[in-house]
Design brief:
The structure is a single chain. This protein has about 325 residues and is an alpha/beta fold. Helix content is about 30%, strand content about 20%. It has 6 helices and 12 strands. A 7-stranded parallel sheet has the order 8-7-6-9-10-11-12, with helices on both faces. Strands 1-2-3 form a 3-stranded antiparallel sheet. It has a two-stranded antiparallel sheet with strand order 4-5. It is globular, with a radius of gyration of 21 Å. It starts with a strand and ends in a 19-residue tail after the last strand. Bound molecules: NADP nicotinamide-adenine-dinucleotide phosphate. The site of NADP nicotinamide-adenine-dinucleotide phosphate has 24 residues, from helix 2.
Length: about 325
């Protein structure tokens, strides 16, 4: 049963990705042309199958109860989800269901865009929906553990699986320790640390089932501490610790865990920040991490801008500033 379609304006209708949600609650993003030529003959294991092609509109309708998806999942990539689109002969890989917190703007948006461009189905857990047609959104204020549980349930209800969770959203509240407000401290703990814990906890059964990938957006701030950074540095350092525990707790159940610890990212357009990492750079990195073979645990990935601003001091003089 065709539930949703993703269509690019002006695109060739025969190569549009179709998003098909079956009664099995699994979701498949299929290339229409390839699907007809290559995929349909393999679907012999539908217990009930009906397909209908509306000539000239590239509309494809599938009505099924169960698909033996492993037939499409020969090897590799997160969740054992088969070959990527265009990766040699054979069927397109099945779209991964990816959840990104804070996908409405900044780095989360770059991650969501890159995954979507790679053929994945991206669900943003967004406090502020951005309304992009290519992005699925569930409204979620990450300060509420009930809202987080409900949002993950909603993703599971709509798509039946989660292959990748990206714990991206965060707040940055900077003030000297004696002036940092209790509200800013509490909010930082809630959004930067507790929310990734609750999100991971809720998504874990799905990630275990899909042999998926769990990503934490860490930060240099979790490794290099600075003035006025109590709320941000502490929550990011603790997030790194949470992620390392996640590696140990989940690896034997097939889940891979990656912490990305970036330096400065141009999360919002500002003059003179061309030297910073771009949100899409981080997105491309997540796509690559999700494509690594299951034998690789990309536990901790530090990323720096290629040409950061030069320090006014260098060499042993640096020690005078510690
Ligand atoms: N920017 C950098 O230089 C940098 C460097 C290293 C690491 N990072 C890490 O990268 C990640 C993204 O950072 P960014 O700079 O791209 O962030 P950003 O542009 O400030 O965006 C923050 C995101 O978090 C969301 N968010 C904040 N509070 C929320 C809440 N209570 N409920 C739901 N969503 C909430 C925001 O949603 P709203 O739009 O609703 O506020 C927004 O989507 C963070 O984990 C950050 O620590 C950033």
């Amino acid at each position: 049963m065709l539930k949703e379609q993703t269509r690019g304006a002006g695109a060739d209708p025969t190569s549009l990705p179709l998003l098909v949600e079956g009664r099995s609650k699994r979701v498949y993003r299929l290339d229409a042309e390839r699907c007809l030529v290559e995929l349909l003959p393999t679907l012999s294991s539908f217990s009930s199958q009906r397909h209908e092609v509306v000539q000239g509109t590239a509309e494809l309708r599938l009505d099924f109860f169960e698909l033996a998806a492993e037939r499409l999942e020969p090897e590799g990539a997160v969740g054992g989800r088969g070959r990527a689109r265009g990766a040699g002969k054979g069927v397109s890989r099945v779209a991964r269901v990816v959840v990104v917190s804070g996908a409405n703007r900044g780095t989360g948006r770059g991650i969501a865009e890159a995954l979507q461009a790679a053929g994945d189905l991206v669900m943003g857990l967004n406090r502020t929906p951005c309304g992009e047609s290519w992005l699925h959104e569930v409204r979620c204020d990450l300060r509420s553990r009930e809202a987080i549980a409900a949002a993950v349930d909603e993703v599971a209800r709509r798509f039946g699986r989660i292959d990748v969770l990206v714990n991206n959203a965060a707040v940055r509240r900077f003030a000297p320790l004696d002036q940092l407000s209790p509200d800013d401290w509490e909010e930082s703990l809630a959004v930067n640390l507790s929310a990734p814990f609750y999100l991971t906890r809720a998504a874990a059964p799905h990630l275990i089932a899909s042999k998926g990938l769990l990503v934490f957006m860490g930060s240099h701030a979790g490794m290099h501490f600075f003035e006025a950074g109590a709320a941000y540095c502490c929550t990011k350092a603790a997030l790194h610790a949470l992620a390392e525990v996640a590696v140990r707790d989940l690896r034997y159940r097939g889940v891979r865990v990656a912490t990305i610890a970036p330096g400065a990212i141009a999360n919002r357009p500002l003059p003179d920040d061309g030297w910073k990492l771009k949100p899409r750079d981080i997105g491309e990195l997540v796509v690559k991490l999700a494509s690594l073979p299951p034998s690789v645990m990309p536990a901790f990935v530090e990323v720096r801008p290629g040409k950061p601003l030069k320090l006014p001091v260098a060499g042993i003089d640096l020690l005078q500033h510690l």
